[in-house]
Write a structure and sequence with these properties.
The structure holds two protein chains of two kinds. By secondary structure, chain A is mostly helical. Chain A is built from 23 helices and two strands. Classes of the chains: A mainly alpha, B alpha+beta. Chain B: This is Ubiquinol oxidase subunit 2.
């Protein structure tokens, strides 16, 4: 095959027929699912004649809510892939005693690398970015984010990175170097193939996107708050989003630098992290974890914000210890930059240095513990409703405490010398990220879904999914704690100690529950769409909410607020309802200026993803072309002067008054019927 | 929680693989420390785990309880407890870290009236090479140690980074090319203990295990003497074969040995370890020698020697 000489390398670089995954039945099947899935989606859109609609209403939209929803769609698609990958690894380990099992070592290594990279960069990050994008502007009484175009560019960079991950499943092999991609293993000397390059470029696109998202969110919070929304009146979710965005701004650049330098090592032969030539992988470890540890709190803080909202909302009570929670969040954000060495206590530095970082790590446990008790006190003397988001919150508080305990154990260098690199560590970070981040994100998805689409999600299937996530997590990951104490290393495709087997089998059963949880989420969505008339909540306030986003219709209009609100307290909407001023007619409406659609983000993201593909396969014309297009797109956009459109005051008045008229005919729903079709989105508190 | 702790206790089964069944002072201190930290942590963990379901149920909407205070949001006494208890607890735990930091430092020599045995460890792809410089022998796949005598491991890698660990004896430490790390352990009774690499280093990673044979000094001396009979010197040629990528079992086609007893070399090039280190950092060879000259006072406060 003409792959190394003539015109082939010029056109296709090192791409050849061998890049197709026919070397393994499982890889072929996985690639087929991706290809067939893509073909099905394209065919379906074409059949329905929805391309133009998709382009105008979604892909080029600069509406923060639609961008948020698209982020969550990416996260859900990637979550599906990565849960399946995780389950495949659990299944392998359940049969791997003195047995090579059904996954080759190379395939197993690719699986733990893609699973980790996807879960962090293309599930967790897009999910929380999407939730923040969707809810935060409404919570601070704003109509849009500060930089709508930048938002779209971030979205499409993330989508480009996610696309690159999907392409890697079909063309070529992904890295076997884990989600942290440690050199020298990922250097050209040991892994000359395309795998580490896929990892480098996918992660780089994601890290650039997140840096820009951080800037956007922080500026939005600083500049876009409505009248009276002083910082200490913001809902707690806004505070945790602020801390997360500041962490993003400072923590993602070290990652971009680390992957950039690694790319230089691989592409132009520098020696930043190589074994020889003066390179030192310790520099990579430091840079990576200088990102990696704040990243943990980037992931968890938005979820903490969601729990604060949900627990207060479903306890019908004001949040306990608001100031205390803000101080705790700030402490966590600052301390998160002071602990990165605990990821490599075993690298040979001095005992005193390890001790300092170990103690700093435990210090983070203080504000985190405070938060748990503040949430418990929020429930106290309230009226707790066990809705789906609340069940997730309760499970989170119990399970996260267990994760906190094991985190304190890992923070102790002397204990870490034993459990580092073991499945104890795997259990710990899944313990923080599944009950911590994932439950929070699914709770947020359930809580804010009506605001996005106008109807609630089916309660029963929500509970089934919730039960499966909780059972699945406990079975799949709690056994890994004793396994780790018994010396089982992580990332092992086969093992030889009979004592491990019972635990790995239980963990394998847990993986089945996690698959069932995923299936239940899909079922819930399908069932809810079918029942959308019954579940509709046009009143806009299905949960007797306390914050501003519940003061507007479900689904929220493009401009969010017909008239920008003015607040004089925390839990502003709750206060309106108490005063009976929640649904007033406004006297004056004014024209609303909203950003016009733009294809800049789409072009930018796709061009850089294509350039990345070119770099991965050494298709230099594509790499250069992609970079040039990506530079040209924002330059061209800067010549467009007409970037906004006006929604006339009359149209706003008409829509708003129509909604108010409809709302006044709705039956007020008591909390006893909150999860039944009688809930039309008008809370009894407002009607009283 | 009960389930978890009973799982932890069950984890003690399986012999010679875990620090929960310790075979040396380092591992047994680590085990005690593990249980001590868990016990202290129960001060905040248990209340949280009990209070969450209790409070949620006690104040459920359908419970008709009359004490509903929707605007109650702060209490100084509670605030002081909520912040104070974790602060005190972390201070206590910090003293545990600070107190044990020096004694459980992998670089710290283990107090003993016997002089330490030095073993040089070279990480290769999917196997560890153990060099006994004083005895002038080497082994792959098996590590013989005398009991009750401190062992001072000096580690490097001739490939990617790896992590050397014998869980039942104590800590793990990374082995990195061009650098030397150090680990001090002691086996206090005869046993066969599992040793391994815990840092993924490629497709044969799961096979990078070895048997640690902790044996009485007399048996150890006999093992050394037998090793010297092997008539298989570890010269340049042999080293280049051993350091090829592959598992220990793959070497059977090149050498005649029983994999369960390990591959033994009757003699070693004296400067093998230093040569491997210097291969990646020529300039470090001299500095490394001068570090040696400074003697033990320098150790334990040093980074991995470059």
């Amino acid at each position: 095959m003409p792959t190394t000489e003539g015109w082939w390398p010029l056109l296709f670089g090192r791409l050849s027929y061998d890049a197709l995954p026919f070397y393994s039945a499982i890889a072929t099947a996985a690639a087929s699912v991706v290809v067939l899935g893509a073909i099905t989606v394209v065919a379906l859109i074409t059949y329905l004649g929805r391309w133009r609609w998709l382009w105008r209403e979604w892909l080029t939209s600069l509406d923060h809510k639609k961008i948020g929803i698209m982020y969550v769609v990416i996260a859900m698609v990637m979550l599906s892939r990565a849960v399946v990958e995780g389950s495949m690894m659990r299944a392998q380990q359940a049969i791997a005693l003195d047995n090579p099992g059904y996954l080759e070592p190379e395939h197993f290594a690719q699986l733990f690398s893609t699973h980790g990279s996807i879960m962090i960069f293309f599930m967790a990050m897009p999910f929380l970015t999407g939730i923040i994008n969707f809810a935060l502007p409404m919570q601070i009484g704003a109509r849009e984010v500060s930089f709508p175009l930048l938002n779209s560019i971030s979205l499409w960079l993330t989508a480009g990175g996610a696309g690159l991950m999907m392409v890697s499943l079909v063309i070529g092999k992904f890295s076997t170097g884990g989600w942290s991609g440690y050199p020298p293993y990922t250097d050209a000397a040991f892994n000359p193939g395309v795998g580490p390059d896929y990892w480098i470029f996918a992660v780089t696109l994601s890290s650039l996107a997140s840096t820009m998202t951080g800037i956007n969110i922080a500026v939005t919070i600083y500049k876009k708050r409505c009248g009276g929304m002083s910082p200490f009146r913001m809902p707690l979710f806004c505070w945790t989003s602020l801390c997360t965005s500041v962490l993003m701004i400072f923590a993602l650049p070290p990652l971009t630098v680390a992957t950039g330098l690694l790319a230089l090592d691989r592409y132009v032969g520098t020696h930043f992290f190589t074994n020889d030539g003066g390179g030192n992988m310790m520099n990579f470890a430091n840079l990576f974890w200088l990102f990696g540890h704040p990243e943990v709190y980037i992931l968890i803080l938005p979820a903490f914000g969601v729990y604060s909202q949900v627990i207060s909302n479903f306890s019908s009570k004001i949040l306990y210890g608001y100031d205390s929670l803000i101080i705790a969040t700030m402490c966590i954000a600052v301390l998160s930059f002071t602990v990165w060495v605990h990821h490599f206590f075993t690298m040979g530095q001095s005992a005193d240095l390890n001790a300092v970082f170990g103690i700093a790590t435990m210090t983070i446990g203080i504000p985190t513990g405070v938060k748990i008790f503040d949430w418990i006190l929020t429930m106290a003397w309230g009226r707790v409703r066990f809705t789906v988001p609340m069940i997730y919150s309760l499970a989170f508080m119990v399970l996260f405490t267990v994760g906190g305990l094991t985190g304190i154990l890992l923070a102790n260098p002397a204990i870490d010398f034993q459990v580092h690199n073991s499945v104890f560590l795997v259990a710990h970070f899944h313990n923080m990220l599944i009950p911590g981040l994932l439950y929070g994100m699914i709770a947020a998805y359930t809580y804010w879904f009506p605001k996005a689409f106008g109807f609630r999600l089916d309660e029963w299937w929500g509970r089934v999914a919730c039960g499966c996530w909780i059972t699945g997590f406990c079975l799949a990951f709690l056994p890994l704690y004793p396994l780790g104490l018994m010396g089982m290393p992580r990332r092992t495709q086969e093992f030889f100690e009979p004592a491990y087997l019972p635990y790995t089998i239980v963990a394998g059963v847990g993986a089945l529950f996690l698959l069932a949880a995923l299936a239940s989420l899909v079922t819930q969505l399908v069932v809810s769409i079918r029942r959308r008339e019954e579940l509709a909540v046009p009143g806009g306030d299905p949960w007797n909410g306390r914050t501003l986003e519940w003061a507007i219709p479900c689904p929220a209009p493009e401009y969010n607020f017909a008239v920008l609100p003015i607040v004089d307290s925390r839990d502003a909407f709750h206060a309106y309802k108490e005063k009976g001023t929640a649904y007033l007619d406004h006297r004056f409406y004014s024209d609303i200026e909203m950003p016009k659609n733009s294809m800049t983000g789409v072009v930018f993201g796709i061009a850089l993803a294509a350039a990345s593909f070119g770099f991965v396969w050494h298709i230099w014309w594509l790499a250069v072309l992609g970079v040039l297009v990506a530079i040209a797109a924002p330059v061209a956009r800067s010549f467009v002067l007409d970037t906004t459109r006006i929604i006339p005051a009359e149209e706003v008045r008409r829509d708003h008054e129509a909604w108010l008229a409809r709302l006044r005919k709705l039956p007020p729903a008591d909390r006893a019927v909150e999860t039944t079709p009688q809930n039309r989105g008008l809370a009894e508190a407002a009607a009283a | 929680m009960v389930a978890l702790s009973s799982l932890v206790l069950l984890a003690g089964c399986g012999s010679g693989i875990s620090f929960l069944d310790p075979h040396g002072p380092v591992a047994s201190t680590q085990r005690d420390l593990l249980f001590e930290v868990i016990a202290w942590m129960m001060i905040v963990v248990l209340p949280a785990i009990v209070l969450v379901p209790f409070v949620a149920w006690r104040f459920r909407r359908t419970g008709n309880n009359k004490s509903y205070h929707p605007n109650w949001q702060f209490s100084w006494p509670l605030e002081i407890i909520v912040w104070g208890v974790p602060v005190v607890l972390v201070c206590i735990l910090a003293t545990l870290i600070a107190g044990k930091a020096r004694s459980l430092d992998p670089y710290a020599a283990i107090p003993s009236d016997k002089p330490p045995l030095t073993v040089e460890v070279i990480g290769l792809d999917y196997k560890w090479l153990f060099v006994y410089p004083e005895q002038n022998i080497a082994s792959v796949g098996v590590l013989a140690l005398p009991v009750d005598r401190p062992v001072r491991f000096r580690l490097t890698s001739d490939t990617v980074m790896q992590s050397f660990m014998i869980p039942a004896l104590g800590s793990q430490i990374y082995a990195m090319a061009g650098m030397v790390t150090e680990l001090n352990l002691l086996a206090d009774r005869p046993a066969v203990l599992m040793g391994q690499n815990t840092q993924f280093n490629g497709l044969g990673f799961q096979n990078q295990k070895f048997d640690t044979l902790a044996m009485p000094q007399a048996d150890f001396d006999r093992w050394i003497a037998n090793a010297k009979q092997a008539e298989r010197p570890l010269d340049q040629d042999a080293y280049s074969i051993v350091s090829e990528k592959g598992k220990l079992a793959d070497l059977r086609s090149r050498f005649d040995f029983d994999p369960s007893k390990g591959l033994i070399f009757s003699s070693v090039e004296p400067a093998l370890f230093a040569t491997v280190v210097a291969r990646y950092r020529p300039e470090a060879a001299h500095r490394h020698e001068s570090d040696e000259a400074k003697g033990p006072a320098h150790k334990g406060h040093d980074h991995a020697n470059h």
